[in-house]
Fold:
Amino acid sequence: MRKWIYVALVTLCLFCINGAVLAASAVTPDGYFNGIRLAGKVRVVDSFPDIRVQVVSAFPDLRVQTVNYFPDNIGQWQFVDYGEDFTVQFVNSFPDIRIQFVNSFPGVP
Structure:
């Protein structure tokens, strides 16, 4: 009987640890993803992006505000055709990060 209780507790702990790892965001609290600062000039590409992005309406990793000039703060993106800081590809599945477009208060939630 004790063996079954022990096995059940170990299994429960493994599920809890696995859930915590899955819930962790890919974006650091200071606004970086794999060494890329998530602010600045962004070019949208169809292949070989720096970051694969999925647009969501809830629970984003990053809130993004599009701006025309001076994208200095985390989450402020200016979409350009050349001279980009990093490239993104918009995808529907298996993203690196999830973003939500906002009109104010961009950044890491």
User: Anything to note?
Assistant: The CA atoms of residues 5 and 11 lie 10 Å apart.
